[in-house]
């Protein structure tokens, strides 16, 4: 298992592609003061559902008009063109890197531009953007540092028993690993404090929802969950792969992240204790 070279946090450090996307994002920022809220929509070949999702985006959150950006992950269909037609901000990766990489880009931009809260909603239409205000509220009111919609507290209408079992299984597993009450570990609608994001290590190019959640909770983050309804895809096809492959890959990310975070937490605690020990003369 490869641990980070340092015990560092999510810093504003970008690879070559992220630098290209950073330039795109910077050109969209208004001069002067901007909204404290950023909504990120990761999208890869979602031409069938993007307009539907956009039609439900909130115009205002807590008295502010949020900045909304679609992160186009190297789509080969009309996703980028449709986003532009809808008048949405779009930053585009020249290649497909995975949802986790797209979200990391969004997180880095939220940090560098000094947003206060960043929210995520998937572009496939399974999660209702009208729930964003309720999901963001615990962060805005400082009652939590990470918040997510939960289909377990609400309802799922997808009709996939294998996935439903997986939601319950991984919730119990992550509850055990983090000692935190969790009911949904792969929600496609969530929000977090940008200050908290600065404390995290996020390396996964895919399945980053579990890495984010575990890293946040083991680092001392406070979780809020909001009941939501998960619908079948509005259009297009899933990019997660078949159920067994998805379950195996997701399990690997969960275990790897938990081991990494507990290791780092243990080292940091040991270092802090050593520094506070009185000197003997």
TrEMBL record:
EC number per UniProt: 2.4.1.-
Superkingdom of the organism of origin: Bacteria
Enzyme class: transferase
Pfam family, one: Glycos_transf_2
SUPFAM superfamilies named in the record: Nucleotide-diphospho-sugar transferases
A GO MF term: glycosyltransferase activity
Record flagged with keyword Membrane: no
Alphabetic keyword roster: Glycosyltransferase, Transferase
Annotated ranges, domain Glycosyltransferase 2-like: 39-200
Family affiliation: Belongs to the glycosyltransferase 2 family.
UniProt protein name: Poly-beta-1,6-N-acetyl-D-glucosamine synthase
Organism for this UniProt entry: Acidithrix ferrooxidans
């Amino acid at each position: 298992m490869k641990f980070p070279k340092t015990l560092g946090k999510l810093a504003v450090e970008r690879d070559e592609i992220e630098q290209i996307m950073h330039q795109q994002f910077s050109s969209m920022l208004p001069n002067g003061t901007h909204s404290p809220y950023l909504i990120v929509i990761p999208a890869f070949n979602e031409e069938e559902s993007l307009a539907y999702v956009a039609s439900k985006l909130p115009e205002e959150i807590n008295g502010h008009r949020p900045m909304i950006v679609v992160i186009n992950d190297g789509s080969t269909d009309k996703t980028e063109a449709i986003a532009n037609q809808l008048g949405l901000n779009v930053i585009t990766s020249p290649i497909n890197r995975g949802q986790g990489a797209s979200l990391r880009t969004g997180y880095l931009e939220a940090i560098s531009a000094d947003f206060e809260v960043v929210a995520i909603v998937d572009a496939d239409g399974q999660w209702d953007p009208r729930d964003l205000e309720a999901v963001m509220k615990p962060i805005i009111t400082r009652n939590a540092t990470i918040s997510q919609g939960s289909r377990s507290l609400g309802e799922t209408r997808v009709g996939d028993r294998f996935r439903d079992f997986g939601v319950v299984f991984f919730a119990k597993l992550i509850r055990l690993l983090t000692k935190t009450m969790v009911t949904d570990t792969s929600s496609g609608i969530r929000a977090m404090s940008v200050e908290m994001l600065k404390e995290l290590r996020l390396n996964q190019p895919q399945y980053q929802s579990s890495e984010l959640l575990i890293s946040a909770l083991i680092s001392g983050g406070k979780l809020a969950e909001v009941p939501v309804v998960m619908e079948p895809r509005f259009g297009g096809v899933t990019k997660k792969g078949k159920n067994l492959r998805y379950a195996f890959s997701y399990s690997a990310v969960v275990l790897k992240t938990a081991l990494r975070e507990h290791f780092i937490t243990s080292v940091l605690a040991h270092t802090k204790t050593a520094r506070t020990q009185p000197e003997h003369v």
